[in-house]
Amino acid sequence: MARRPLPSILSTGSAQIARSRELARTATDSATDVLHPLITITRGLRRLAAAGRRRWSDTPKDKRGPLLFLAASVVLVVALAPYGPLLAVMALMAAAAWHGRDRTAPAAEGPDESQIKRLDALYEALIPFFSVPEDPAPLYAHGGEWEKVFPAHEFDAAGRISHLTIRYPAYFPDGEADARARVEHLLHAKSGRGREYRFEWDEEGNQLSVTVLSPLPLDIAAQPFVTSPGETVLGFTDPTEVQRTLPLTHGEQRRDVPPVVWRTGVRSTEPHLLVMGQPGSGTSTLLRSIALQALRHGDVLIVEGGGTGEYACLAGRDGVLAVECGLVGALASLEWAAHETERRLVALNRARQAGHPPPDDTRRPLWILLDRPSAFGHLTAVDGRQDPQALLQVPLRHGRAANVTVVVAEQFDTADVLSDPVRQHTRARVVLGPATPGRLTAFLGAPSHTVPAAQVPAGRGYARLGDGPVLRLQVPRTPDPYDDATTDADRQAVLALLPPRSAPAETEPVALEQLPVEASPAGSNSSHSS
């Protein structure tokens, strides 16, 4: 979302304030240059006075009398000598100027010996990639000078490269993804593993910029985000990638963090989401975060194929239609969701033909969250039942018009069992956990400008919404509050976001197969089906 322009009064006032600050800064610099000798002499007098006080305090008491007599004699001789006071003042000013000079050591220009060795090794490693035998004057050659190809370089406190600009010859195929990937892999290995790098290729200027990225914040817990209806915060990214920030609370502190906002609804271009990751990468955490945000303005239907009870805290809550872990309940709930999508389409079509606004029962968003639907594949094959993914075709195809959103989370090991409708209609993609650049490009549809680290924390990954850029992502901490490993702070943060229960917890759940298909999710609110 583009930032709204400030009112003319505020923008004009801001410009005047900026000009006033610039004038004040210029005047201060000019005054400092003019008064620099006086400042130096004053600093020297202060240092001489401090040295005299230390000398007087270090002198034993029995020797202070002779020392005082000697100083008085010197003052008397100077006062009686011709031009004595003038010469004494000049000598004092010269001593004050000498002692008041700036003693800070000048900053070292250029890299030190260890940094030169690192740049020279990197230059030698790039020779096979940026040179050909036919080049009469190669930029990269054994025994060449690295200063010609590294016009800018910066190092961190540990002596590792933090920023580097690389020149390369014009014949290098920088438009080919494979050629770029080989160079990026080499730079990642030679510049230091365990960090994330951003690579910016300037194809017109034949330059490559390598920048070390700061780690994304890991301490952002679940909380009510300041968003509009239809906006869902998937996580947080780098401040240079988005033009929006969200005010967040961290204990007693408040700070602004750039979010990755996913927009759903009738006017969304990416109405459905697909999340992929390895076990323990945080896919269930992201689905819990989405469910808590969706319950603020809509209804949620959850189908969990893993059967681990990750969403038991949502069962029986207001707005939660069902939390199903069994095959029978999952089939009944998804079949109801398909019929509900069709019912909304019919109601909306009749309202438009009659010239009426959309009915109220179609305005409230419906969210369908599926965690590992591939786990039902073997069960359906054994029982001869329909695959639950086949029931998602109607919500996926017509969900945007019916205000129905589908979110599917799956693991890379079972990604090949995802149905074609799920792959085709989920244009918003998220990858969590470690992944190779080739896998990221194949799943997200575009290469990432950063190289992921080999070891990443839970909830760290990449996101791409439709045809947008690939963004780094850190999911907010939204653990299962019923898990014993959850800290008290995170548990209370999640419990505070849960809506109140719509029925007592000890109420006996009703078997889904005994209810009509159209009414099953609304009346179940159970985490297990019989």
TrEMBL record:
Residue ranges of the region described as Disordered: 498-530
Sequence ranges of Low complexity compositional bias: 520-530
Amino acids binding ATP: G277, Q278, P279, G280, S281, G282, T283, S284
Stored SUPFAM superfamilies: P-loop containing nucleoside triphosphate hydrolases
Domain of life: Bacteria
Domain FtsK positions: 257-441
Transmembrane as UniProt keyword: yes
Keywords from the named record: ATP-binding, Membrane, Nucleotide-binding, Transmembrane, Transmembrane helix
Transmembrane segments: 67-98
Any GO molecular function: DNA binding
InterPro entries according to UniProt: FtsK_dom, P-loop_NTPase
Name by which UniProt lists this protein: FtsK domain-containing protein
Source organism per UniProt: Streptomyces griseoviridis
